[in-house]
């Protein structure tokens, strides 16, 4: 057993479990559009030196077609999926958003079957159905769904579902690019291009990139960019050098529980007994899908 690689995977998942909490703590101080743009501009800059080193070592050549491909992936990830995630955090609950988005590995199997014709086993089908059942239990068990305190909670839930689905699509479409260009080049370039494009879109639609330069705001933006988007990514893919993708992602099923605990500790977001049962279903679905890959 490679202890260091497993530890790297665990550290990455623990860091990613704080994403929704950090986004929620920013509150009204900065718009979801600006948070997402800054997060990937900073994260892409953190990964860039590693991408340059990998590109030089592997003699990766990027032409116009390559840049357009990476740009399209950046748009799907940053401008669509991660912006939807930040909107879900803004309008909804951090815990609920984290749980829903954590289901994306289940949708990866479905998109992989549809798009790149990867075989979908009966175990993966059962896991997907179990995960969807858990999602329904979590949503229906949300006591604040129609509460006056959360007037846009249903909108937040919808954004979270779309974020999880579109990120799964990004994961599948990125697979070929990663094989061709490598992890650091693919993600570093797509992060930066996506962040730049979202910044331009923000300017065009009147969404300011500026925010109050308080210690909390600056600290959280740097945390989301450097730690969550940059360093956690580097830990995760460092682990994947010696672990399979499936084994590296096996710790992902811990995210619903970890994110919920963080949201309770810092935001006092409570989950009902019904929702806890739903989380258990989702965690079982994720762990079942991963463990049954004989890793």
Set down the secondary structure blueprint.
Blueprint (H helix, E strand, L loop, with lengths): L2 H14 L2 H8 L5 H27 L5 H28 L2 H8 L2 H12 L6 H19 L12 H29 L1 H22 L10 H25 L5 H4 L6 H13 L5 H19 L4
Order of helices and strands: HHHHHHHHHHHHH
Beta-strand residue percentage? under 5%
Number of strands: 0
Helix content class: over 70%
Number of separate domains:
1
Straight-line N-to-C gap: 11 Å
Description of the structure:
The chain has 295 residues and is an all-alpha fold. The protein has one domain (3-291). The protein has 13 helices and no strands. It has helices at residues 3-16, 19-26, 32-58, 64-91, 94-101, 104-115, 122-140, 153-181, 183-204, 215-239, 245-248, 255-267, 273-291. Helix 2 (19-26) packs parallel to helix 12 (255-267). The radius of gyration is 18 Å and the shape is globular. The model has no long low-confidence stretch (mean pLDDT 84).
In short:
The protein has 295 residues and is an all-alpha fold. The chain contains 13 helices and no strands. It has one domain (3-291).
What are the main properties of this structure?
13 helices; mainly alpha; globular; single chain; 295 residues; 77% helix
């Amino acid at each position: 057993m490679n202890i260091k690689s497993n530890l790297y995977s665990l550290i990455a998942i623990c860091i990613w479990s704080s994403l929704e909490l950090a986004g929620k703590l920013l509150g009204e101080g900065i718009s979801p559009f600006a948070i997402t743009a800054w997060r990937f501009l900073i994260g892409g800059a953190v990964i860039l030196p590693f991408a340059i080193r990998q590109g030089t070592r592997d003699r990766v050549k990027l032409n116009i077609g390559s840049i357009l491909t990476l740009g399209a992936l950046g748009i799907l990830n940053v401008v669509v999926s991660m912006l939807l995630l930040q909107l879900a955090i803004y309008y909804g609950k951090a815990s609920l958003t984290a749980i829903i988005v954590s289901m994306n590995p289940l949708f990866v199997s479905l998109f992989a079957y549809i798009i790149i014709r990867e075989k979908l086993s009966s175990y993966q089908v059962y896991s997907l159905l179990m995960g969807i059942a858990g999602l329904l239990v979590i949503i229906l068990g949300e006591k604040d769904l129609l509460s006056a305190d959360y007037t846009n909670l249903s909108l937040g839930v919808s954004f979270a579902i779309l974020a999880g689905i579109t990120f799964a699509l990004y994961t599948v479409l990125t697979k070929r690019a990663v094989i061709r260009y490598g992890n650091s080049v693919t993600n570093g370039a797509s992060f930066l291009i996506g962040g730049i494009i979202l910044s331009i879109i923000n300017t065009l639609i009147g969404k300011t990139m500026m925010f109050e330069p308080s210690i909390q705001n600056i600290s959280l933006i740097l945390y989301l960019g450097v730690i969550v988007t940059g360093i956690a990514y580097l830990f995760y893919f460092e682990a994947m050098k010696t672990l399979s993708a499936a084994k590296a992602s096996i710790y992902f099923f811990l995210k619903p529980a970890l994110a919920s605990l963080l949201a309770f500790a810092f935001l006092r977001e409570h989950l009902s007994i019904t929702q806890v049962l739903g989380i258990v279903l989702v965690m079982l679905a994720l762990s079942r899908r991963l463990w049954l890959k004989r890793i």
